[in-house]
Design a protein that fits this description.
Blueprint lengths: L1 H17 E8 L2 H8 L9 E5 L8 H5 L6 E9 L5 H9 L9 E2 L2 E2 L5 E5 L2 H18 L7 E3 L4 E2 L13 E4 L2 E4 H12 L1 H9 L8
Helix pairs in contact: 4-5
């Protein structure tokens, strides 16, 4: 019995050691959350705010462009199934990394792209992936690798927005939330711009 408990402890320790977190800001957090929840090894992605000075910010605080926060996502992942470097790579290939004024149709500092590294190792990895992506793209990438700050969870109605089944009002009238999300994503030009920028290496294009 003691041997079984020891073996179980080793297994649990191994699983815990592989658990990690990535924090990315890539414009509308609905889209980034929807993207990364399709990746093998990624758990439940959380939409939120980070990088600013306001405590417990609301969506209104952040979109007013006075809080300093970015719309961002917290991505729990199993490092035994997907590496941090791979997550950074596909993040870069799913955003407009040459746009310093926002992302796609969403303009302003809160919609800028950034990688928020949890430690020095993540930041080094992120900078390495950015350098590789710059060579591939042949352009200067403006997405920075920044030290992580407090991550504030966004309001409940923002979580898993892309698959909601309630009705919301859009410019095209009432729509089921998941359909409204799809309409927003297409209208904002996210996938079209990512495809134009990255070509065959674009990630998460619909």
């Amino acid at each position: 019995m003691r041997l079984v408990l020891i073996m179980l402890g080793l297994v649990l320790s191994s699983v815990a050691a592989r658990a990690d977190t990535a924090i990315f800001a890539g414009g509308c957090f609905w889209c980034v959350e929807a993207n990364f929840e399709t990746v093998l090894g990624v758990g439940d992605v959380i939409s939120g705010y980070t990088g600013g000075s306001v405590k417990n910010p609301t969506y209104e605080d952040v979109t007013s462009e006075t809080s300093g926060h970015y719309e961002a996502v917290k991505i729990p992942f199993d490092a035994g199934k997907v590496s941090y470097a791979e997550l950074v790579r596909i993040f870069l290939h799913s955003t407009d990394v040459v746009d310093a004024g926002g992302q796609f149709c969403d303009r302003g500092d809160s919609y800028r792209s950034a990688i928020f590294a949890m430690d020095a190792a993540q930041r080094a990895t992120a900078k390495d992936e950015i350098a590789k992506a710059e060579v591939e793209l042949g352009q200067k990438i403006v997405t920075p690798a920044l030290p992580a700050q407090t991550f504030w969870r966004a309001e409940d109605y923002h979580q898993n927005y892309y698959k909601g089944d309630g009705y919301v009002l859009t410019r095209r009238g009432p729509k089921v939330q998941s359909a409204a999300y799809a309409f927003y994503r297409k209208s904002c030009g996210r996938d079209a711009r990512v495809s134009d920028l990255w070509g065959a290496s674009a990630a998460f294009v619909h």
